[in-house]
Amino acid sequence: MSKFVDDFMANLKAKNPAEETFHQAVHEVVESIEVVFERNPKYAKGKILERIVEPERTILFRVPWVDDQGEIHVQKGFRIEFNSAIGPYKGGLRLHPTVNLGILKFLGFEQILKNALTTLPMGGGKGGSDFDPKGKSDNEVMRFCHSFMCELFRHIGPDTDVPAGDIGVGAREIGFLFGMYKKLRNEFTGVFTGKGRNWGGSLIRPEATGYGVTYFAEEMLKAAGDTLKGKTCLVSGSGNVAQYCVEKCLDLGAKPITISDSSGFIVDEDGIDRDKLAFVMDLKNVKRGRIKEYVKKYPNAKYTEGVGVWKIKADAAFPCATQNEISAEDAQALVSNGCKVVSEGANMPTVPEGVNIFIKNKMLYGPSKAANAGGVATSGLEMSQNSLRLSWTREEVDEKLHNIMKAIFKQCHDTAEEYGTPGNYVNGANIAGFVKVADSMLDQGVV
Ligand code: NDP
Ligand code: 2IT
Asked: Is the pLDDT of residue 1 over 90?
């Protein structure tokens, strides 16, 4: 490790102890941008790195709620308003028992650079709670969301901070959150994205992250003279991102063969076709069931408890579950099994050693902040439609999303070349995102 990276990380860890995933996210970026600092002393002089890793504002609050038995529970509520250099704070809310400050700071930090890559004017933010929606009734989820919003409403707004979904937050939760916001503020604005179609949501927003991650894989393959058509694909997760990744793989003629949840994974060598995907969507989104049910309906498939998706032989890999789900051993297995492309739907799903293995082996590797940016980009399109008070067609939004994913790929590709590491889209994404935000921060002075 260089002295530049070493010194910066030592200081960051001393100031932000016990936030390992935040350290991990920052470390990767600092490694990539060292060369930018060598070429442009203005960033060091402007203390841009020191400033960009410090959230502009961190909101921590108590979220009490009452379950169906009348028992009171208390959760932690968070919103990190990380950086507003290029637009209002923008990023999702995560509801998962593992949520803590370090996790949300990693996600918020990634979001700053991701949003910069989308070509749209959005700053970075993230929030959530350690509330676990799994196994809760709709009424319990509603009471939690309403309580959460009773504090958050005073900090957000369509020109200030615009939350959206992430793990554990989908259409149901956004509805409850928006409903309470509207009641408390007495105004109907585009303060959330991922809203329902009848009340200001954009077509294609539900599909956008999964479609985008697949478009990004197609772009990487195209640049290498190949395509997704006919390729077998490993997909992890079975939530929003995974479902629409599977759908777009099918649209592009590929053959997805896996899907998973936090209990285990299924392998279906016959391929997960549209009927099977419809079954998964009903199982996960309506019945809120577990993925092991798949093998009861499709007995040719195999269910295995625990992890193991990445050890299966395939041509393409789409991690769409959670952070650090691809270990170094998994990354090596993907390389050894001849996998050609990895496009990340989840945020930071590959451990740093795994990323190094991909880079060393010249894997077509699309890091999350580029590959999964289609979700937030389409949130940006939802914000535009809300401001214009009109609604674009499915085709219009999908075409804009597709063009944005191409533009993100081009930035990663060209920037990686410009800085002497062609094909390294990690460097490309980190540098392109950083420079846009850093230059904006310099323009705005010390704020
Ligand atoms: P969902 O809540 O819809 O689905 C999450 C899926 O991942 C579920 O299958 C879940 O399984 C699994 N999962 C969650 N946590 C873990 C864990 N700790 N270990 C193993 N599996 C886990 O979330 P999304 O699909 O929206 O999000 C998936 C990923 O994509 C996240 O990393 C998120 O940050 C990222 N992302 C999401 C975007 C969006 O627009 N929604 C945009 C960009 C990135 P189980 O049901 O068992 O919990
Ligand atoms: O990680 C992400 O980019 C998201 N969860 C989507 C954020 C958004 O504001 O649409």
From this structure: no
Is pLDDT at 441 greater than 90 in this prediction?
yes
Choosing from 111, 207, 240, 383 the residue with most ligand 2 atoms within 8 A of its CB, the one to mutate for a pocket test is 111
Q: Which residues contact 56 (CB under 8 A, 6 or more apart)?
A: 81, 82, 83, 84
Cα 361 to ligand 1 centroid, rounded to whole Å: 28
Q: In degrees to the nearest 10, what's the CA dihedral of 200, 206, 207, 212?
A: 90
Residues 343/220, Cβ–Cβ less than 8 Å: yes
For the segment 374-382, the average pLDDT, to the nearest whole number, is 98
Does the pTM of the predicted model rise above 0.85? Answer: yes
* CA 362 to ligand 1 center in whole angstroms: 27
Domain 208-366 CATH (choose: 3.30.1300.10, 3.40.47.10, 3.30.70.270, 3.40.50.720): 3.40.50.720
Domain boundaries, the chain: 57-187, 208-366
Judge if the beta carbon of residue 168 lies within 6 A of ligand 1: yes
Average pLDDT of span 302-312: 97
Nearest residue by C-alpha to atom 4 in ligand 2: 92
Place of tokens 């927003």: 205
CATH of 57-187, one of 3.30.930.10, 3.40.50.10860, 3.60.15.10, 3.40.50.360: 3.40.50.10860
